[in-house]
Design brief:
Oligomer: single chain
Number of strands: 18
Radius of gyration: 22 Å
Helix content: 25-40%
CATH class of the largest domain: Alpha Beta
Mean pLDDT: 94
Strand content: 15-25%
Amino acid sequence: MKHFLLINPWVYDTAAYDFWQKPLGLLYVGSILKYHGFEVNLIDLMNRYDEYFKEINFIKDRYYGTGKYYYEQVEKPEIIKDIPRKFKRYGLPEEVFIKKLNEYKNVDGIIVTSVMTYWYYGVYKTIEIIRKVFPEKPIFLGGIYVNVMPLHAKKTFEKLNVKVINGTGNIAIKKLFDYYNINIKNIDWFEDLDPFYDLYSDVPYIVITSSIGCPFKCTYCVTPRMWKYQIRSVKKIIKGIENVLSKKKVEDVVFFDDAFLIHPQKEELLEKLSQFKVRYHLPNGIHAKLVNRKIAKLFSKANFKVIKLGYETSDEEMQKKTGGKVSNEDLIRASNYLLNEGLNETSAYIMANLPGQKVDDVIKGIDFCMELGIIPSVNEFTPIPNTPQYMELVSKGWIEIDTDPLLLNNSILPYWWDYGMNVEEIEYIKAYLRDKKSQKRGI
């Protein structure tokens, strides 16, 4: 029986916070491997509830299971050495990682995931350590970064003798098994399997999804270009939650859908979710256009807390240009329905630093949300390679097609990009929002 070690890598960044971050794709890979009879273990370098952090009394939750990561300041790579921000490695210390790796000397293969394109450096540093401990073991790399930038990944990781596996679902699994000359039948993994949370000893929150992909095609988003939109049946979603709750002391269940309200059985799902004594959250931005009075009542009944509405911008022309999935009227209506049901932690995402966007547009969006009684969250724009918006920027000469992803990090972009907001403008927006929040709290 083959034995696989799954690894969720370090994050190297100027800032990071655990907003319910779990390696969902990697946990599904674990379930698929287990289903086919293989032994599976996990080292999650970003797990704030690791035994090591318990021993040093570092676990400090804030709200609903979110919290700060442990970090150590590290030397910046050459390409961002002149950026005046501290660079940090978030996650378990290196010596703890090496100790954990040495517990799995007999594994047949090591599978590493990746998320943000601009986090590839953390993946690289993770695999550097793995390769020192396991000079000859097969190492496989998959995940979002690999699918968005397969050529960059192959070129970057070839020196570490890493097998880059692009593709999603059964396509990626088949490539893995082909290496071992293992023949398997495709399975409907998304419908029939759950993320493998048994790999964690302690998991106060879980991240799940009722669908993958998204039928909308927003110009800045990579999701619909990676996945065909699929839903999971209500029966299997509920059974999956029951299974985890029977084994773990979970207090928060987080849906990471990109299109939660598109699910055709959403009302049935929300009704059945109310049977569990947990808190639910929707942090990825639901479609305001699809919120009605009944949906709001069901959210309240099921005990939903954090609900993020996708808003992006108050500029109606830019709303149409980026995908047209929300209007100002949609946000007004959705906010009223949700607030009337006591869902007072409703907020809306606003984008800052979109190409051609003015500071005043973001300020207007903040004011608009505050007037509606919801707190906006400002997300700084990150150009995602190979999206329509990115290719438009390339065609205009505003960005090079082979720009190092480290430079595209939204915390670094304003320091060098001439076609967006500068650092002072971004800081002004952040200060303006902080002031508005303080006024609302009466501070």
